Amino acid sequence: MSSEVLSQNEIDALLSAISTGEMDAEELKKEESEKKVKVYDFKRALRFSKDHIRSLTRIHENFARLLTTYFSAQLRTYVQISVTSTDQIPYEEFIRSIPKMTILNVYEVPPLDGRIIFEINPNIAYAMLDRVLGGQGNSINKVENLTEIETKIMTQLFERAVENLREAWSSIAEIETILTDFEVNPQFLQTVSPNETVVVISFNTVIGDTTGMINICIPHVVLEPMIPKLSVRYWMQKTEKEKLPEEVQFIEKKIFKTDLDVVAELGKTIIKINDFLHMDVGDVIVMDNPITKPLNIKVGNRTKFIGQPGIVNKKMAIQVLDELKGGELDDE
């Protein structure tokens, strides 16, 4: 039976058609008993579930925010980048969908296998180049005649930009990003077989008055080890990772070596500024704390203990009498 839910109006119309004889109930039963055939294209194999695609979209929405911050700082102008779509398609279809001449950066992402492709629309690439060189961000598409200087500037700009991918992917994998190739003709770029399933994340990019697309092509072989971490079950787990025993021991050692100021406070008093300015050797300052009353012992700026003063080995000392639970803040 179909999983589609009918509205009340549709149910009423169906009952009315059966009662008037326009539809035969026996024919409906016969249709339901027939086998349903679903067309499956083996050239367009779907290796990722909708759940996986949603997780990838969420990860790269964070990446889009990081890119927005990065390019806005580098280009010193308004930049807005947002995810428009996340699709799984054959690699051949991705190559056909992008311009014949465009900016292609190929990255390795060790320790994962395979390579990912960053495709930047020439309009966007040249607007960025113009801003870096001090222009207004105008776009002049002459990608087939890139000079060595232009190639070098673009390579460095996008090589640093893709470093943000490590932070975006940190929740599912610890990766490095290594630029391995720079190309302008997609036909010369063959990273996987034509029928290999790839995930393509498309970003709408606005730089001033210039608009264009940035596409990330991620082959299945790259994402395969991370598929279990793209499920809802993984994302529903605690976001904070449990620290390993080695990490706990390291932190404890660092804390135990931390120096703290411990001060025994003899007492406090209030005097006039004039008396303070005329104070001399031999003058006596009367404190508000009687000799018979214990002294406050402060750790940092908190009163933690009370104790009594004394002498040990001809040195002034204080004996801890009690601990103040909760470590009340000093009134100062």
UniProtKB/TrEMBL annotation:
Its main location: other. GO terms for cellular component: bacterial-type flagellum basal body; plasma membrane. It is a peripheral membrane protein. One of its GO terms (biological process) is positive chemotaxis. Pfam families: FliM (PF02154), FliMN_C (PF01052). Residues 254-323 form the Flagellar motor switch protein FliN-like C-terminal domain. InterPro entries: CheC-like_sf, Flag_FliM, FliN-like_C, SpoA-like_sf. Keywords: Bacterial flagellum, Cell membrane, Cell projection, Chemotaxis, Cilium, Flagellar rotation, Flagellum, Membrane. It is found in: Bacterial flagellum basal body; Cell membrane. CDD domains: FliM. It comes from the Bacteria. One of its GO terms (molecular function) is cytoskeletal motor activity. Belongs to the FliM family. PANTHER family: FLAGELLAR MOTOR SWITCH PROTEIN FLIM, YOP PROTEINS TRANSLOCATION PROTEIN Q. This is Flagellar motor switch protein FliM.
